[in-house]
Each structure stands twice: as structure tokens, then as C-alpha cells.
């Protein structure tokens, strides 16, 4: 199967986003080193997901054996529209490819296409400590805004542990919001090995600068489910409109007042889309009141539109090839499943379950 397209060429659009400050992993990978990471198809793939995760995935695939999973089973824990889910999965896959995920280097697949994720999650739930699960910050935050609190939301970190351990991943790139979940995975490994014999190694986090892109409301993290985001696929008019409504410096009441770029949402975001000298110039202009908040917003919109243009162009190219994305996802699932089946055979034996026919 030929999966290489211009959209997955080695020159990645990540290079167009200036100020990409994440440190590449310092661990020296061996041929065994395996990275697993996932993203939910729960709505617009936004600049927080890109800057906080996916731009690193593009770099990691150069150094590690990587598996990138569209975690549709995780997305079921939130209220969602089933009719729209297939479209969201395909669009997310298209955007990941457009960002530079290369299906010849990394295995890109959909979680529910590999049923062993659910099987291992159940088994791990018999090992995972209830007390620690109830302390998960993300569970507390998400359950506060959920219509009702389903068990899946509570056991979400156990499914995440299964995602990682099914492929015996050695390294997991974690955002600051996921560190606690990875710690739980390590605890599950210790308990499992202790009870059933050495089976899994504790996966290591790949540390990078903690990055939390805030939403347009300036109060909560940018999040698909909160709708406070700028999507990687937003068109120029939408980007301008969203940024025009974003928060700036609350203490700057009049145009001639000096601004405080260090505490301004719009000025802060600029660093990810413009080179350092341009950022310094804009911040100085704000501080001295040479430019106003409207000018800062226009500068940010221009820079963001220019930075996202190449990703959006690649997305259009991929979409012009009907069936390509499904083909890539099916091939990814086939490769992932071959590994998953091996792990499950070992796990079943450890647990004393009769081999399946
Ligand atoms: N605002 C953010 N800043 C930095 N990184 C972020 N990530 C998410 N939001 C930000 C990182 O993106 C990766 C994929 O996230 P996910 O889809 O698995 O779930 P999430 O962290 O819960 O992201 P959302 O957008 O908030 O999704 P919903 O609203 O569906 O829950 C992760 O590595 C995450 O750290």
C-alpha cells in the first residue's frame, strides 16, 4: 500500500510555527523504545492540542517507534453526537496527517479498531486502586461540568493505562494535565507485576516544557469540549473573529494607557506564531502604548493565519484523495493489532485464563 503523500512529506508544517519551544526527548532511544500517545475525536482539533502535543509527535516519529491513537473510546465518556463521530474521527486523522504525522514512520490508528484495548482495560481495572482513581484531578474537573457522571469517566485512566501497556510503550509524551494519569499507569504496572509476575515495564514520561494553552475565555485551558478554542482548521475570517473577542490586558482601559504584555492573553499567544524579534517589537509597542489592543489582535490573527496555512493546504490535498484516510487507518489498526494480540496472549496466560480457540 502506498500511503506516502505530499501531506506526509518529511518537511513538516511544524516548522512554520515559530517559537516551537518544546525540548526534544533527551532519552537516547534504543530500537525497543516505543512511544504511545492519543488524542480524542471530541470536536475541533485546536492549537492547544497542536502546540501541547502533536508538534512533538511529529518530532518523535523521527527517533522512536511511535503509535498514535485516535482514542474514540475515551471520547464516549463525554456527551456527544453519535451521527457526527465518524466524521470527527476522519477529520482528526486528516488533520494529524496534515500536521506531519507520517504513516510510514508512525502507526496511526483508531482505538476501537483494536478491541484488545477494552479487554486489557477490564483486566487492569481489577488491579487499579480505587482510592487513587478517585483522586484524579481531571476526573474531578470533568465530572463537575458533566451532565451526569458515568463510570467510564472515572475509569478513563485505566483505559489510558491499557492503551500504553498493550504496546509495551516505554515512553509517553505527557502534557501537564496527563502526568497524574501516567503515574497511575506506573502504579498499575507495579501491582500487576507483583501479583502475576514481571510482564510490563513502567513507562517513562517524555518531559518537555509544561505547556497549557488557555482558551479564548482566558480562564480555562483551551479544550475541545469547552468550545473555547481556535481550531487548526479554522478559516481566516473565523480566526479574526475569535481573536477579536479574546481577552487582553484588563488594566488597560484606554488606548493611550501603557499595556502589560506579560499578563495579556493575546500578547502571550503571539510567541507561538511569530519569530522572537517580532514578538519583542509587538510587546514593546504595547508597553509604550504605541500600539493598541486592536493592533495586537490584528498582528496575532495575521501570524496565526499564515502559520496554519500550510497545514490547511495539506489537509485539502489529503481530502482530495477519497479513501486515503480510511486506508491509512485500517493499515495502522492491522499493525497495531498484531502487537496487541501478542501482549494479550501473554496477559491471558499470566492471569490463568484458558487460551481462546
Ligand atoms: N490547552 C492545552 N494546552 C496544551 N496542551 C493541550 N492538550 C489538550 N489541551 C491542551 C494536549 O493535547 C493532547 C490531546 O488531548 P486529548 O484530546 O486527549 O484530551 P484533552 O487533554 O482533554 O484535550 P481537550 O481538547 O481538552 O479535549 P476534551 O475537551 O475532549 O477533553 C494531550 O496530550 C493534551 O495534553
Low-confidence sequence ranges: 1-31
Structural class: mainly alpha
End-to-end Cα distance, whole Å, is: 31 Å
Number of domains: 2
What does this molecule look like?
This protein has 357 residues and is mainly alpha-helical. It folds into 2 domains: 15-213 and 322-351, 3-Layer(aba) Sandwich (Rossmann fold), CATH 3.40.50; 236-319, Tyrosyl-Transfer RNA Synthetase (Orthogonal Bundle), CATH 1.10.240. Helices cover 48% and strands 6% of the residues. The chain contains 13 helices and 5 strands. Strands 1-2-3 form a 3-stranded parallel sheet. Strand 4, helix 8 and strand 5 (204-206) form a beta-alpha-beta unit. The longest helix has 28 residues, at 324-351. It starts with 33 loop residues before the first strand and ends in a 6-residue tail after the last helix. Residues 1-31 have low confidence and may be disordered. Adenosine-5'-tetraphosphate (AQP) binds at residues 38-40, 42, 48-49, 52-53, 175, 177-178, 211-213, 221-225.
Furnish the topology, listing elements before pairings.
Blueprint: E1 34-39, H1 47-60, E2 65-70, H2 72-75, H3 85-99, E3 106-110, H4 116-125, H5 130-133, H6 137-144, H7 151-165, E4 171-173, H8 179-196, E5 204-206, H9 236-244, H10 265-270, H11 276-287, H12 293-319, H13 324-351
Parallel strand pairs: 1-2, 2-3, 4-5
The chain binds adenosine-5'-tetraphosphate.
Task: Provide the descriptors you would attach to this structure in a database record.
357 residues, mainly alpha, Rossmann fold, Tyrosyl-Transfer RNA Synthetase, 2 domains, three-stranded parallel sheet, two-stranded parallel ribbon, 13 helices, globular, binds adenosine-5'-tetraphosphate
Amino acid at each position: 500500500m502506498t500511503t506516502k503523500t505530499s501531506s506526509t512529506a518529511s518537511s513538516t508544517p511544524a516548522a512554520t510555527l515559530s517559537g516551537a519551544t518544546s525540548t526534544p526527548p533527551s532519552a537516547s532511544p534504543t530500537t525497543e523504545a516505543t512511544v504511545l500517545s492519543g488524542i480524542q475525536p471530541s470536536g475541533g482539533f485546536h492549537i492547544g492540542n497542536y502546540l501541547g502535543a502533536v508538534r512533538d509527535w511529529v518530532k518523535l516519529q523521527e527517533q522512536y517507534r511511535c503509535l498514535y491513537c485516535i482514542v474514540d473510546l475515551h471520547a464516549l465518556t463525554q456527551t456527544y453526537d453519535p451521527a457526527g463521530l465518524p466524521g470527527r474521527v476522519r477529520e482528526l486523522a486528516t488533520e494529524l496527517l496534515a500536521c506531519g504525522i507520517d504513516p510510514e514512520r508512525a502507526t496511526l490508528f483508531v482505538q476501537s479498531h483494536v478491541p484488545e484495548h477494552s479487554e486489557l482495560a477490564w483486566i487492569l481495572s481489577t488491579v487499579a486502586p480505587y482510592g487513587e482513581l478517585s483522586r484524579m484531578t481531571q476526573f474531578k474537573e470533568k465530572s463537575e461540568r458533566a451532565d451526569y457522571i458515568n463510570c467510564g469517566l472515572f475509569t478513563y485512566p485505566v483505559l489510558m493505562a491499557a492503551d500504553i501497556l498493550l504496546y509495551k510503550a516505554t515512553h509517553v509524551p505527557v502534557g501537564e494535565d496527563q502526568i497524574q494519569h501516567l503515574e497511575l499507569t506506573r502504579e498499575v504496572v507495579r501491582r500487576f507485576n507483583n501479583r502475576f509476575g514481571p510482564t510490563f515495564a513502567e513507562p517513562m514520561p517524555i518531559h518537555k516544557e509544561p505547556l497549557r494553552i488557555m482558551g479564548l475565555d482566558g480562564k480555562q485551558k483551551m479544550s475541545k469540549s469547552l468550545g473555547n478554542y481556535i481550531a487548526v482548521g479554522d478559516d481566516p475570517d473565523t480566526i479574526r473573529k475569535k481573536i477579536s473577542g479574546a481577552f487582553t490586558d484588563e488594566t488597560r482601559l484606554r488606548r493611550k494607557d501603557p499595556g502589560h504584555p506579560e499578563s495579556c492573553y493575546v500578547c502571550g499567544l503571539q510567541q507561538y506564531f511569530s519569530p522572537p524579534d517580532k514578538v519583542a517589537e509587538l510587546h514593546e509597542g504595547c508597553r509604550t502604548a504605541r500600539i493598541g489592543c486592536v493592533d495586537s489582535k490584528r498582528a496575532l490573527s495575521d501570524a496565526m493565519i499564515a502559520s496554519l496555512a500550510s497545514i490547511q493546504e495539506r489537509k485539502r490535498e489529503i481530502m482530495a484523495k477519497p479513501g486515503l484516510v480510511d486506508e491509512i487507518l485500517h493499515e495502522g489498526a492491522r499493525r497495531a493489532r498484531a502487537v496487541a494480540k501478542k501482549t494479550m496472549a501473554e496477559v491471558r496466560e499470566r492471569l490463568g485464563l484458558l487460551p481462546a480457540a
